[in-house]
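Example 9 (inverse folding). The structure is encoded as follows.
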């Protein structure tokens, strides 16, 4: 599967701007993780892009609809990683791809949310400020803090290292994401 085909598949299932933005941010972070480890960046990107593709259209069947679709296309490795992108689903994580999607998903969304409330957005953002926000239970309360911790652990990283990678990855896309001081998010 190519990136273009993955984008077309995502757009078949997902229409909402917020979920499309989340898919894109996770795709960029997955690509960066793949690059860091010398893995296939396209495979990592596509996994990140499609991990929640069916969530909007089929929330009660998520992620099985997209997983089954990918399996029909012969994309078993990507399908398996997406099937286990939440640790409570008890899907075994064998490959780096399986582990990276857990690390990227929740925390990328959290970093985005934390940037939105900062006057300088992503500019000057540090892992320390994100870690402080993670301790605030009422901020982005739907983000599973245990899942965030497990994600970094699965990569064998300390949480600040993963947060810094996410910040560095999103910064070049700040304008596109509405994360430039003075701009509103789209």
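The amino acid assigned to each position is listed next.
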């Amino acid at each position: 599967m190519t990136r273009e085909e993955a984008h077309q598949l995502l757009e078949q299932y997902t229409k909402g701007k917020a979920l499309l933005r989340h898919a894109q941010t996770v795709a960029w972070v997955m690509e960066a993780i793949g690059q860091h480890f010398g893995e296939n960046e396209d495979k990592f990107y596509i996994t990140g892009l499609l991990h929640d593709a069916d969530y909007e259209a089929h929330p009660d069947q998520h992620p099985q609809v997209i997983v089954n679709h990918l399996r029909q296309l012969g994309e078993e490795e990507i399908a398996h990683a997406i099937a286990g992108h939440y640790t409570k689903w008890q899907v075994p994580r064998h490959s780096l791809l399986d582990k990276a999607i857990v690390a990227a998903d929740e925390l990328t969304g959290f970093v985005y949310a934390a940037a939105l409330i900062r006057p300088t957005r992503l500019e000057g953002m540090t892992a320390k400020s994100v870690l402080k926000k993670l301790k605030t239970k009422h901020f982005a309360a739907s983000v599973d803090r245990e899942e965030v911790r497990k994600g970094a652990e699965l990569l064998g990283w300390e949480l600040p290292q993963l947060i810094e990678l996410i910040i560095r990855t999103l910064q070049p896309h700040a304008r596109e994401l509405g994360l430039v001081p003075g701009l509103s998010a789209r």
